[in-house]
From TrEMBL:
One Pfam family hit: FA_desaturase
Family in the record: Belongs to the fatty acid desaturase type 1 family. DEGS subfamily.
Any one GO molecular function term: sphingolipid delta-4 desaturase activity
Official protein name in the record: Sphingolipid delta(4)-desaturase DES1-like
CDD domains in the cross-refs: Delta4-sphingolipid-FADS-like
Length: 328
């Protein structure tokens, strides 16, 4: 891998891991395809994506309206134990759509992403695609990959309490980090996403009241913080093993998260829909069986918070001049 970092045993590092080689997925993709060209048959959209997204959006909006007169304790409970799973599912549906994996025509994926965004309450679908595709093309590249924490985050988040707070509020860091470190001018699609989302939010408050709207926001916030599904944010690229940059999760929550847990497989083949990623591992097991993987995202969160050697600096970085890969 070429990673390098100096740290004392038992002490949190003061710098990122640095790699002096290109990210590993493009070269592994070429190797796998040379041995198993039939994997190309898996490329393409998921024909059930539109239906799955429509069901979740409808269910979450119905739940929000049904809670218009509920007490706050009930709203909070339903938001954490039910709505959070639905909104995080939609967040990962938007991740799927950012790779055009619902329709062959890109613009249809963008419209569906704006639709999937509705119960989340905050417009993010269009902007997410811009930054996420850069995460694939320039994985770990300093100043470009906004999936990596900033130096400010890394210097502040130094102990168990700080890491716990960071995990609870990690969605805010993901949302605000690009605006400060790598801002991009908004365009027509961002404006469209904003107008449609604010129109839904206004309608929710006007017809059903603030409690229904608050339920949606709480579902988003709780589902992205100290929550089992949010463990994927940490498990995907935070380095617990210095010899590995990307990690997969093979637990049951893949059923609710568009199989984003198959993350090595996803980065190797971003043109394969989540519903088919397990087949990559079945076809080419020798390329994945040697990697460390996880069975519990909750355990990953616990490990991250409690391990005093792991923190926001536990990410791989590389210089921009070393990377110029294409997102296939």
């Amino acid at each position: 891998m070429g990673g390098e970092k100096k740290e004392e045993e038992g002490v949190m590092a003061s710098d990122f891991f640095w790699s002096y080689t290109d990210e590993p997925h493009a070269s592994r993709r070429r190797q796998i395809l040379s041995h198993y060209p039939q994997i190309k048959d898996l490329f393409g959209p998921d024909p059930w994506a539109f239906l799955k997204i429509t069901v979740v959006v409808s269910l979450q909006l119905w739940t929000a309206t049904s809670l218009q007169n509920a007490g706050w304790l009930k709203i909070l409970t339903v938001a954490y134990f039910f709505g959070s799973f639905l909104n995080h599912n939609l967040f990962l549906a938007i991740h799927e759509l950012s790779h055009n994996l619902a329709f062959s025509t890109p613009v249809y994926n963008r419209w569906l992403g704006i639709f999937a965004n509705l119960p989340i309450g905050v417009p993010m679908s269009v902007t997410f695609q811009k930054y996420h595709l850069e995460h694939h093309r320039f994985q770990g590249v300093d100043g470009i990959d906004m999936d990596i924490p900033s130096h400010t985050e890394a210097h502040i988040v130094k102990n168990v309490l700080a890491k716990s707070i960071w995990v609870i509020f990690q969605l805010f860091f993901y949302a605000l980090r690009p605006l400060f470190l790598n801002p991009k001018p908004p365009g027509v699609w961002e404006f469209t996403n904003l107008v449609i989302q604010l129109s839904l939010d206004y309608a929710m408050v006007y017809f059903w009241g603030w409690k229904s709207f608050a339920y949606m926001i709480l579902s988003t916030f709780l589902g992205g913080g100290m929550h089992p599904m949010a463990g994927h944010f940490i498990s995907e690229h935070y380095i617990f093993n210095p010899d590995q940059e990307t990690y997969s999760y093979y637990g049951p929550l893949n059923l609710l998260t568009w199989s984003v847990g198959y993350h090595n497989e996803h980065h190797d083949f971003p043109r394969i829909a989540g519903s088919k990623l397990y087949k990559v591992k079945e076809i080419a097991p020798e390329y994945y069986e040697g990697f460390k993987s996880y069975r519990s995202w909750s355990q990953v969160i616990y490990m991250y918070v409690m391990d005093r050697t792991v923190g926001p600096f536990s990410r791989m970085k590389r210089k921009a001049s070393k990377t110029a890969k294409k997102d296939e």
